[in-house]
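Running this now, will post back.
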Amino acid sequence: MHEPSLVMFAVFVAITLIVTVWASGSTTTRKGFYTAHRRIGGIQNGWAITGDYLSAASFLGITGLIAFYGFDGFMYSVGWLVAYLAVLFLVAEPLRNAGKYTMADLISFRLRGRTVRALAGVSTLAITLFYMIAQMVGSGLIVSWLIPQVPEWLAIGIVGMLMVIYVSFGGMLATTWVQIIKAGLLLITAAVLTVLVLSRFGFSLTHFLHAASAVPTGTGVTNLLAPGLMFHGTQGAWNMISLGLALVLGTAGLPHILMRFFTVPSAKAARTSVAWAMVLVGLFYLATSFIGLGAATLVGQQHIGQRMYAGQAIEYIAKHASEAHALNSQLAHNGFIVPVLNNNLAAPLLAGELGGSLLSSFVAAVAFAAIIAVVAGLAITASSAFAHDIWFNLVRDGEGDEREHLFIARATAVVVGVLAVMLSIALRTYNVAFLVGLAFAVAASANVPVILLALSWRRFSRGGAIAGMLCGLGVSLAAILTSPIVLGAHAIFPLENPGIISIPAGFLGAFAGSLIWPDAEAEALFDRLRVRAATGLGAEV
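Update: finished.
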């Protein structure tokens, strides 16, 4: 399995590096580096958004959650797809017309002040870092699964290095084409796996669903079509509502998705790109249900995890005497052992079951491509947030030439890459879809209230923006740090996703701050923002 995997990894990396070299000539200015000179077409941008959005969380995490939790796991797919309606109707066109390089540009259009821009920059950095960690955790899993000799920390480091190269040399143009290539590969892979899964059931949907309703677990049988496998108990319904709110609203506040609307030449192109993205993303998420349930029925839940064969398995069993009986039984029956279940590996293992090592290697290479493309998009977003919002507008007070600006942006990509690698290694045992869910919660709590109120409420003020972002960001982070994820049985906040309290906290903070600290200048600029957001009059081109 190793040789074809390495060849496929190498081919993808080579293609994307060629794209990066080709694009490097267009990154000599801020406009070229951050927005590809706003020359990306609507359809192109739709594919790029798809590539940016369909991350390791979608391909590895959601299929794994569906394989283990069935109906409840599919809620992630539904939430992320419905989220695009909020993007289409609420933010795509106003953002393209009123923004320039970052989300903070839109907010600062009428809410002038250094603190507002600084907080928007910090919020962007926090969200992109959360999201980036999930992708890198996925990359470590994929590479170490295919090539056990390569430890996860090394695989995570390689992804971090490639990310820095793509962003530093190719800017937004290279990132866009890497995302388009990746989106095409991912959709083709999902379609192939779906067809192969159905072929095992004679292309009968009835037979497929019947198998999914009685999946062996090793100790019994479970019905993956029934709700309640993930969201159960006294907190089950609240966990589902909290997660749903975060997923549906979070996309409209994700900085790396919002930044893509600055790459198109007009508001019409922005709408076109969202429409294309909705169709492509919808098709993919429909396929995740077949892939996830296919993994459960054809691979078996008890076989989804890092596998150990022969000498490696014997060595592991010798070190874990208390589990020796069960593990020896696994080795004798299957020829391998799975010491720890890992639902992130459901899709690659299903590919191995359906098409052998060649298809498995191809799927792993596509997953690796998915991770690199998303991480590159996140890195350029983090670079722009620090270089444009914090360094250029706050530290240098608008001074500084193009050369300095680009140097800071590229240096930020390096620093963010190193930090993300270190955190990813520390958090590599968490489910990637779950980690992304937390990023959505922070985005929905800190960014969405401020964006929506800036566009729709005349009395919204700088004080309201600051209070809204601080409340949303602070409450979401505090809830995560005191949740069962971090504190286990000693959790203070009982839910695993903070959205149900952090999103209202963001809105309440914004309303209260605006009423306590009114802002005449912000009110005077409201009509100007509305005209520009609706018509594009005076928009950056």
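The chain has a mean pLDDT of 86. More later if anyone needs it.
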